[in-house]
């Protein structure tokens, strides 16, 4: 009987591992990448748009919140804006690793975002808007993680880590919301 692949060493397909040396132009994407790369890039670009809208919303709230005693809320808005920017940067980096192009087009940003922009002037309305956006982001990430499954562990890990921070943000906003 003729053997078509090299024997497995420790359960690994050595031929497939060695084949990873080919197609250097593909960078981090090897032949073993199991996800639909274009679909993942599209999901990541939508997540990128969502994070950028969240940065803008938190920044607007940071600069416009006023009033005695609102210093801690203002600081929370700034911290969240910075963390959302870190998420956006990580998503853009992953898109490039997958040989995609991150979409920063401001003309289509809000249409592609899962969360909405808010220009409220009332502090409680700002907090409520941010809580809603965080919950939307959490559910979006949950669905993206489920869609990717185990086909792209790096992207899955990234999305899980971002979702964990979004959950912290939701808790922060809930704690600030006047009941």
TrEMBL record:
Recorded superkingdom: Bacteria
What is the designated name of this protein? Answer: Bacterioferritin
| Listed GO MF terms | ferric iron binding; ferroxidase activity; heme binding
The answer to keyword Iron applying to this record is yes
Q: Which GO terms describe its cellular component?
A: cytosol
Please tell me whether the keyword Transmembrane is annotated for this protein: no
Q: Which InterPro entries match?
A: Dps-like, Ferritin-like, Ferritin-like_diiron, Ferritin-like_SF, Ferritin_DPS_dom
Report any one BP term from Gene Ontology: intracellular iron ion homeostasis
Q: Which residues bind Fe cation?
A: 51, 87, 134, 166, 169
All copies of domain Ferritin-like diiron, residue ranges: 34-179
Q: What are the leading ranks of the lineage?
A: Bacteria, Pseudomonadati, Pseudomonadota, Betaproteobacteria, Burkholderiales
Question: Which keywords belong to this entry?
Answer: Iron, Iron storage, Metal-binding
What Gene3D superfamilies does the record tag this protein with?
Answer: 1.20.1260.10
Look up and give the organism this protein is from. Answer: Massilia violaceinigra
């Amino acid at each position: 009987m003729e053997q078509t692949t090299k024997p497995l060493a420790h359960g690994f397909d050595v031929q497939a591992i060695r084949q990873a040396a080919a197609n250097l132009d593909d960078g981090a994407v090897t032949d073993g990448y199991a996800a639909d790369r274009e679909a993942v890039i599209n999901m990541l670009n939508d997540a990128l748009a969502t994070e950028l809208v969240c940065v803008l919303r938190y920044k607007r709230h940071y600069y416009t919140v006023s009033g005695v005693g609102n210093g801690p809320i203002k600081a929370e808005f700034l911290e969240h804006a910075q963390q959302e920017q870190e998420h956006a940067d990580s998503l853009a980096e992953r898109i490039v690793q997958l040989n995609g192009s991150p979409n920063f087009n401001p003309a289509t940003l809000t249409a592609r975002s899962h969360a909405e922009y808010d220009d409220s002037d009332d502090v409680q309305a700002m907090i409520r808007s941010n809580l809603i956006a965080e919950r939307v982001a959490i559910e979006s990430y949950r669905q993206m993680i489920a869609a990717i499954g185990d086909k792209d562990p790096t992207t899955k890990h990234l999305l899980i880590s971002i979702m964990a921070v979004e959950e912290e943000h939701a808790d922060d906003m809930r704690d600030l919301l006047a009941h």
